[in-house]
Amino acid sequence: MTYRVVQWSTGGCGTIALRVINDRPDLELAGVWVHSDAKAGLDAAELAGLGSETSFGVAASQDADALIALKPDCVVYTASGEARPAECIDDFVRLLESGINVVNTSVPGLVHPAGFDVEAVTRLEAACQRGGASLYASGIEPGFAGDHLILALSTLSNTIDSVRTQEIFGYEDYPVAFTIFDVFGFGKPPEHRCLMELPGVQASAWAPPVRMVADHLGVESLEIRETYEKRLTDRRLEVAAGVIEAGTVGAVRFETIGVVDGRDAIVIEHINRMAPDLAPDWPTAERDGTYRIVVEGDPSFQSELTFGNAKDYSEHGMVATTMRVVNAIPAVCAAAPGLVSAADLPLTLPVMPFTRG
Fold this sequence. Notes:
Layout: E1 3-8, H1 12-23, E2 27-33, H2 44-47, E3 60-61, H3 64-69, E4 74-77, H4 85-97, E5 101-104, H5 118-131, E6 134-137, H6 148-153, E7 159-170, H7 177-183, H8 201-216, E8 223-232, E9 237-239, E10 242-244, E11 249-260, E12 263-273, E13 290-298, E14 301-306, H9 313-326, H10 329-334, E15 338-340
Parallel strand pairs: 1-2, 1-4, 2-3, 4-5, 5-6, 6-15, 7-12
Antiparallel strand pairs: 7-13, 8-11, 9-10, 11-12, 13-14
Helix pairs in contact: 1-9, 4-5
């Protein structure tokens, strides 16, 4: 079966998705939504970074109504969501009510709908039922390393005392200025309180994956706790998102913690630096681009997932994030109407991965 797909936005994940959708034998690119006037009317191949001499035969549009009228089977929604979660929810409702399935990387809290905002989930579920469509959210973290992968690894376990997922990533190549400066607080003076320091903001994204693990492993009572630390850089740093001056925040470390029976039992921890030598006393890995999972219990074990190489791990992580939703398109389209998570779907395997590329 071939699924007709509209790609919604053409940022980092969106451009990857465009190339993959065009290449997959089971997917057909039906349309592309873009925000900027400069991109409207351009061929999707050019937006995918393949140059103006290549054509996918699909022009980008700012007309959401026209794209909805195409009646695609699915929308791959990768528009920025950190600064506009309410607008993303509005878009999802409109698409779902039109009978269009949605897979997205934009609202990470929806990786486990039961742990997300109740009012938003109620509204989205109603839209799914009215339109007969499904909504799925995923990514690499949230969406895999701290939740779905933990559940798979738990099949090795008899008992679990604690499980900790560490993201050890440099963010010097991450280009989204709002995320870097306003959300995480990089480049800000030490007294500044970024969004991640405000109570509940961190939990809005990372409490749902913590709760996903807890809910599927039978935890009956869970409390969520947050931590946030920052370290300053002693020199000026020029990074993909802009400039970080000496004396401002150059490294951050935060945890979203699921407390079970008084102990820190399910933890998602981020250690993110703008230069590898900052905060040397914080956890490190052999190199950046690593997710480390540490399980204490019977048995105790440790697993590491590392992307690309020392120079391109950020790019490889973006591909992985994108494929978590693109590979899920057939399963989401086949699912019963409603909000679905990775734990609800069968394995979302890639199609013919050894014979493409």
